[in-house]
Amino acid sequence: MPVRLPVLSSARIRGLGLGLALAVAAAVPATAATAAKTLVFCSQDSPETLSPPLAASSVAMDAIRPVFDTLVAFAPGTTDIVPSLATHWSISPDGRDYTFHLREDVAFQASEAFTPTRAMDAADVIFSFGGSAGGERGADYEEFRDPGLAGLLESVTPLDDHTVRFRLKRSDAALLAQLAMPVNSILSAEYRHRMVQQGTPERFDERPIGTGPFRFLDFRQGVAIRYQAFEDHWRGRPKLDTLVFSITPTASARLQKLKAGECQVSATPNPGEIAEIAADPSLRLFAISGLSIGYLAINTTRKPFDDVRVRRALNMAIDREAILSAIYPGMGTRADTPLPSASWASAGAAQAYPYAPEEARRLLIEAGVTDGLKVDLWYPPDDRSYNPDARRMARMIASDLEPLGIKVVRNSAPWETYWRKLMNGETTLALAGWIGDNGDPDNFMATLLSCAGAARGGHNVARWCDAGYDTLIERARQVTDRTARARIYADAQAIFHEQAPWVPIASPRFLVAARATVMNFVMNPLGFHDFSAVDLAE
User: Fold this and answer.
1) What is the DSSP annotation of 256-300?
2) 39 inside domain
C-alpha cells in the first residue's frame, strides 16, 4: 500500500539534519504520519555486524537488541534472569539438562524479500544454536560464534514443537546468563532456508530478521541504523514508531546534538560534561555502577614481562589514583582485580598494589632491568565507556614509567586493526577493557584470563596461562551457590594479584544523557541501551 510521508517544518529539518530528517520520514508508517514518535539515539560507533552469531563488540550487541529476542532476558536495570521467548524452564539434578518451554504464537518480522509462514517454534531454537533436527551440533549454521557455549553444549533437542532440551557436557552455573546475551538470539530457520533457496544467503546476515520489538530498515555504515516498530511483537507494539541509531563517535558532538534536539538519548557522555548536562533543565543524566573494567594488559610471553617481578613493578609504578582523578573524575572506582567493583564476586578490597615507585625500581633492578628498556604501549583510537580518554591515559602511564628507565613508544590504530592486534598477541602493553556480556563473574574471569583465551584470537590479551587459576574458574562453573562461588573466585583473584598479568585501572559508572521528554528509559549495569518500553512525552 502507498505510504504517506509526514510534512516536516523547515525548523524541524534544521534540527534533525536534512539527511536524517528524510530518513526518518521514509520510515514512518502511514497510519501514524501525523503523530509519529521517532527517537534518535546518538550511539558511539558503527557495529561490525547486525547478525547475532557474528557479533563480537558491545556496539554490535546494542544494535542487535531492537531486532531480536532471546530465550531468557535480563530484568530491566538488573542482571536477574527472567522469562522471554521461554516462558519457564527446569534443570535436572545434575545440572546438565535444561528444558525450556517456548512461548506460542511468537511472530517473526517480514521484509521485502521474506514473509514468514509460521510462528517461532523449536526448529528455530535448534537452528539458532547450530543444531540439526536430530539435535546434533553444528549442522545447519556454520557461522555459530559463541565458542564458550559451543564447547559446552552436547546437544539441543526438540521434545515437541514448543519444548527444547539443552544437554550440557558438564554443569555450568552461568548458562542462563549466557543465553540472555544478544549473540544467542533466536533466529529464523525459515528465513535462512529461503535466502539459500533464492541464492542470496548473505542477506540473512545483512538484513536481520528476528522476533524483537523493532524491525530492521537499513544501515548506512558510519551514518545511521534505522528501525521501525514491529506491530506484531508478542509483548505488544512498542510506543515508539521509529528508532534511529545516529552514529556519532565523539562525545562532544553527541552532547551538542543532544542539546540541539537532533537526538533524544546520547551514549557515554564524558565525565567532564556532567556539570553541563546537570545545569541544562531540558536534559537528564542517568548513571549506574557498571559491570565494566578498564585495564593495562601486559603480554606475559614477551621479555622481560615474563618475569613476575617486572609485572609487579609496573603495578607499583603507575599512579592509578591520578588516572582516576584525571580521566574518571567522580565516575569511577579503582580496580584491583579482574572483576568490576559492582560484581558480587569482587575481592578487590583485600588485594591492591600500592603506588610505590621506589619499590618498583628495586624490583626492576632485581629482575635485571636497567635503563634502556623500550616498550610499545597501544591504546584505542576513540573514547570507550571503560576508557573515556585513552590517549591521555597512555601519556600518563608513559610519564610514570619513563623515570624508571622504561622508554615507552605510544601507538594506536583504527579500531578493527587495534583490536585485531590485541586478539593476536601483537602488543606488549595495551590499554584494553571489557563490558560484561551477562553479569556473571565467569564472563570476566574466564573470558579475559583463561588459558583457552590466551590462544591466538582469544580475549586474553596478556597471554597469561596459570593452571591453578584455570582449575579454580572451572570449579566455580560447577557450583550454583553464589556464596560458595564467590569464595572460589576470591582464591582465583589472589592468584591474579600474585602473578600480576594486568595493571587494573578502573571500574567506571555507566552514563547516559537524555532529553527530559524521554520516558521509561532504564539503565542496565551491562551498559546496553533498551528502547523496547521507552516513550516520548508530547
Assistant:
1) HHHHTTS-SEEE---GGGHHHHHH-TTEEEEEEE-SEEEEEEE-T
2) no
State the pLDDT confidence band at 160, using cuts at 50, 70 and 90. very high
| Chain-centre distance for alpha carbon 261 | 27
Whether residue 280 has pLDDT greater than 50: yes
Those residues with Cβ within 8 angstroms of residue 253's Cβ, 6 or more apart along the chain or in another chain: none
Split into its structural domains, the chain has a count of 2
Mapping DSSP onto H, E and C, the string for 197-223 reads: HCCCCCHHHHCCCCCCCEEEEEEECCC
CATH number, domain with residue 469: 3.10.105.10
| 349 has a pLDDT exceeding 90 | no
Between 217 and 351, where is the model more confident? 217
516-529 pLDDT per residue, tens: 999 999 999 988 99
How far apart CA 87 and CA 375 sit, in angstroms, is 54
Same domain flag for 161 and 309: no
Alpha-carbon dihedral sign for residues 300, 304, 306, 308: negative
Name the residue with cell 548506512.
Answer: 220
Q: Could you list the residue range(s) of the whole structural domain that residue 465 is in?
A: 292-508
Secondary structure of residue 464 in the 3-state scheme: coil
Q: What is the pLDDT of residues 180-227, one digit of tens each?
A: 999 999 999 999 999 999 999 999 999 999 999 999 999 999 999 999
What confidence score (pLDDT) does residue 148 get? 67
Q: Which residue from 94, 84, 184 is spatially nearest to 480, judged by alpha carbons?
A: 94
Q: Centre a 10 Å sphere on the Cβ of residue 10 and count the other Cβ atoms it contains.
A: 7
Between CA 145 and CA 140 the distance in angstroms is 13
In the DSSP assignment, the letter for residue 347 is -
